[in-house]
Amino acid sequence: MTEKNKKASSGDRAIGMDASITRRDFLGSALLASGASALNGLNPAQILATAGAFSAADAQADWTGYGGVGEYSRSNGNAFAVMEVGHKMRDGAYEPLPPDTIETGETYDCVIVGGGISGLAAALFFQRKAGKDKTCLILENHPIFGGEAKQNEFEVDGKRLVAHQGSAIYLVPYPYSFIARFYDSIGLHTPKLTYQRWSGTGPEMTLGRTPYDSAGLSHGQYGFWFGAEFGQDPGLWLVDPVGKKMEGAPLSPAARRELLRWFSGAAADESKFDPPKYEGDEISRKLDAISLEQHMMERYGLSRETIRTFLSPVEGGGSGLGPDALSAFSEYAADLLHPWDDGSGEVVQMFPGGNTTIARLMVKALLPGSIDGPEGVEGVSRGAVNFAALDARGSTARVRLSSTAVSVRHDGDPAKASALSIAYAKDGKVFSVKARSAVMAGGSWTAKHIIKDLPEAQRSAYAQFYRSPCMMANVAVRNWRFLQKMGITGCRWFRGIGNYFDVRRQAVCGGVEPTITPDAPIVLTLKVLYSYPGYSTEEQGHRGRGEMITTPFREYERRIRQQFTDMFRAAGFRAEQDIAGIVLNRWGHAYLTPQPGFFFGSNGQRAPRDVLRAAPFGRIAFANTDLAGAMDHRYSILEAHRAVGQLLDQVVSREA
Ligand SMILES: Cc1cc2nc3c(=O)[nH]c(=O)nc-3n(C[C@H](O)[C@H](O)[C@H](O)COP(=O)(O)OP(=O)(O)OC[C@H]3O[C@@H](n4cnc5c(N)ncnc54)[C@H](O)[C@@H]3O)c2cc1C
To answer: Whose C-alpha lies nearest to ligand 1, atom 18?
Structure first.
């Protein structure tokens, strides 16, 4: 062992890299970790080849890492097998279909590609509107349904902890709105939830209910961290940056001024801006013509440098990239769904595992026997999934998991064909079913590869959908006394892995403890985004995906442990004992990142989403939240509703 290696190993030990709960015990990790930089630009299959001396299972484990416990433990983010099939599909491996493709002999009235919120909603609408004698099949490529609405579970010191993998919050809707009635129909009767109460020793601390609240910021209980990149060694904490008016931050006076206005809310208060009232009004079209970065500069008086150095990519309107890459309208698109703000300050809600609960409620509504126990939030939070009941022979609605649709094609001329042939890959084999209609709810990045006879108009529309990656890292800690000691409940940092986290009071359901204390374990969620300001929207997505999928679990684990150690060691935090588990959720195509012109078109061309939403193509209709241009589960539901309505109005006939 060289001196350098010895040093690295003792450094690894100091941050707990040999601690047990996240251990993978595989042979290839050291090679993959040390060779990470050489692997850039390769896809996972190529990584496996590079690691040829080791088994595929070893390398796969090194990529996937620890998955937590429970029903979601084999489905953290995009599962490795899903990605492999996805890349084969992109590279044309299923064109033509292999000669040993197995015809299942099944014919469905509707096959739905994708078992996220949109696909599940499509199945429910189809079942409810077409009638229970009509059949539908969902093909979902992950080992469990939910799409980006899934959760991780940890077992820490005898306590069960739950955290979201992706889709987190929902907003209380107007009581008689379409979304409210939909929630009610799946068993979410009371959208306002009850949250944990404080039971810690010492004065009660300010806690939000979601990872996005920064509740401590306006109460002096928030910290900004400046590390080595800001010339600070061992690093500098500015606790209560707003209250202290950024005094002591190692920044230029101009940057301090701008950040203070931004984080104190003054920039928003001062701005004389009239936001869009409805989609397509004059202001929304003006916003869509410029980048969000330009809009932030004009509306809030921020400099480009401040935006790119301190605010990007977090303040990107929830679209995965920094404001330079996005349409300014993306910041306002979701607001136009009009949540019900009754003044109680409770409009934003979150289940312990985020919108996982909404997905589970939908599955229970579709197939009552598929989750044990009664309907309703408590029932689906505690009940176990009955996997066999999801795809039971004879059932009119079926959910087929670990099944990637690889080919959807009309049987003949799309204008006249009476059926579609749909092929999917499962367990290394390819199967084929027939369908009288289909909803593509899996997302733009796969739909464009799967539909083999897609006309040029739709094909070029999909080519203008760019998606960017995101890695959600859930870090279970045995307690958060180190934060209490520092007097903070959330923090932000401007370099390194992730950018922020917040301690959150969880909704009390599904066995969550009714109180929260710094002495008990919690999960801290880091959202890791990949942005490269200055590059095109498409290029930023490609680069980020390349970086995310070629970095082994162990390397990310090391960076997270080091980040926490650098920030919290002085407050008594010890990564080797305090981190109880890390789960990475890698979403290769997490967010649609709408570029200027995405929403309402540019250069006299129709908006790409309108081309796909306007009408079905033959027997195929299009759904998924990305068709709205905003990543929000309400849009997933609304797009599914439109797509199924189009099929029933125009495609599915009585004798079909
Ligand atoms: C990190 C993150 C945080 C988010 N936070 C929120 C939030 O707080 N609130 C909110 O409302 N929204 C949030 N979203 C947006 C989220 O996308 C939506 O809420 C919603 O979950 C999307 O559902 P969907 O069905 O439209 O798409 P998806 O969830 O992407 O579901 C599509 C499913 O289809 C599968 N699929 C794709 N291709 C195929 C194929 N060929 N064959 C079979 N299956 C296929 C996919 O793998 C996936 O499982 C967040 C998204 C991310 C990434």
So the answer is: 633
- What are the distances in angstroms from CA 437 to CA 105, 244, 613, 642? 16, 61, 16, 14
**Ligand 1 atom closest to residue 591's alpha carbon, by position in its atom list:** 53
**For residue 149, how far is its CA from the centre of ligand 1 (angstroms)?**
6
Query: pLDDT by residue (tens digit) across 440-494?
Result: 999 999 999 999 999 999 999 999 999 999 999 999 999 999 999 999 999 999 9
Number of Cβ within 10 Å of residue 162's Cβ equals 25
Burial of 199 (0-12, 13-18, 19+ CB in 10 A): middle
Q: 559: helix, coil or strand?
A: helix
Q: Which helix (H) or strand (E) holds 443?
A: none
Report residue 510 as tokens: 């599904």
Residue nearest to atom 12 of ligand 1 (CA): 632
Average pLDDT over residues 572-591: 97
Other C-beta atoms closer than 10 Å to the C-beta of 336 total: 17
CA-closest candidate to residue 400, choices 410, 388, 385, 412: 388
Nearest CA to ligand 1 atom 39: 442
Distance 150 CA to ligand 1 centre (A): 9
Q: What is the mean pLDDT of residues 190-211?
A: 97
Q: What is the pLDDT of residue 478?
A: 98
* CA 85/CA 337 separation, integer angstroms: 35
Band the pLDDT of 3: cuts 50, 70, 90. very low
Cβ of 581 below 6 Å from ligand 1 = no
- Ligand 1 atom at shortest distance from the alpha carbon of 639: 26
Given a cut of 70, whether residue 29 has pLDDT beyond it is no
- Which mutation among 75, 125, 148, 398 tests ligand 1's pocket best, with the greatest number of atoms within 8 A of CB? 148
Report the DSSP pairing between strands 348-350 and 169-171: antiparallel
Q: Residue 318 — pLDDT band, cuts 50, 70, 90?
A: confident
Measured at the alpha carbon of residue 494, what is the angle toward residues 13 and 320, in degrees to the nearest 5?
A: 100
Which of 407, 625, 627, 637 best tests ligand 1's pocket when mutated (most atoms within 8 Å of CB)? 625
209 CA → ligand 1 middle, Å: 22
Q: Spell out the residues 6+ positions from residue 380 whose beta carbon is closer than 8 angstroms to its own.
A: 187, 357, 360, 361, 363, 364, 371, 373
Alpha-carbon distance of 357 to 354, in angstroms, equals: 7
Indicate which residue's Cα is closest to atom 17 of ligand 1: 631
Tell me the chain's radius of gyration from C-alpha atoms: 24
Which stretches of 546-626 are assigned E, i.e. beta strand? Answer: 579-592, 620-622
* Ligand 1 pocket mutation pick from 144, 167, 451 by most atoms within 8 angstroms of CB: 167
